[in-house]
Amino acid sequence: MRWSRQIRLVGAWDALIYNIDRNSGNILFDLDWNLWMIDHTRTFRSSSELQDPSSVNSCERTFFEKLRTVKDDAIRQAVKPYLKSLEINGLLKRRQKFVEHIEKLIREQGEAAVLYTFDAK
Fold first, then answer.
1. At what angle do helices 61-69 and 85-109 cross, to 10 degrees?
2. Nearest-angstrom CA–CA distance, 85 and 78
3. Among the residues of 40-117, which ranges form H helices?
4. Distance separating alpha carbons of residues 83 and 104, to the nearest angstrom
5. Alpha carbon distances (Å) from 19 to 25, 40, 42, 78
6. How far is CA 80 from CA 12, 25, 62, 63, 70, in A?
7. For residue 37, what are the β-bridge partners?
8. What is the pLDDT of residue 103?
9. What would the pLDDT profile of 56-101 be if each residue is shown by its tens digit?
10. What is the pLDDT of residue 120?
11. How confident is the model at residue 121 (pLDDT cuts 50, 70, 90)?
12. Distance (Å, rounded) from C-alpha 79 to C-alpha 51?
């Protein structure tokens, strides 16, 4: 179950950052089966659309709550040294669409079916 939750969190993260190059070669795991995402060179596109919202059918609770409550200005300031203005705008719009998508799933299926808590150990 922990492994599948890690994989689902990767999917949510990739949807948010618009990762067009996730593959088995850029997911590593250690001896304790902790998953590590590497190679984010093809991410943070300017698109305001989620790549494949139907592939995101659940979300880690803390991740979702932070996405739901973080202010655009806080995101903008955090990524400003690394992203161009169009990429930042795309990220902010995708974040809003991601939150709306998860909220819709919660309304349709119930919170327990959509949100989960990831135990890092």
1. 120
2. 13
3. 61-69, 72-79, 85-109, 111-114
4. 29
5. 14, 7, 6, 19
6. 22, 29, 24, 21, 16
7. 27
8. 98
9. 999 999 999 999 999 999 999 999 999 999 999 999 999 999 999 9
10. 64
11. low
12. 21
Tokens, residue 50: 């989620």
Buried residues in 77-91 as b, exposed as e (16+ CB within 10 A) = eeeeeebeeebbebb
DSSP string, 16-54: HHT-S---GGGEEE-TT--EEE---TT---S--S-S-GG
Helix (H) / strand (E) element for 12: namely helix 2-17
User: Which amino acid, residue 100?
Assistant: E
Residue with tokens 């990831």: 118
Residue type, 34: N
Query: Rounded to an integer, what distance in angstroms lies between the CA atom of residue 8 and that of residue 12?
Result: 6
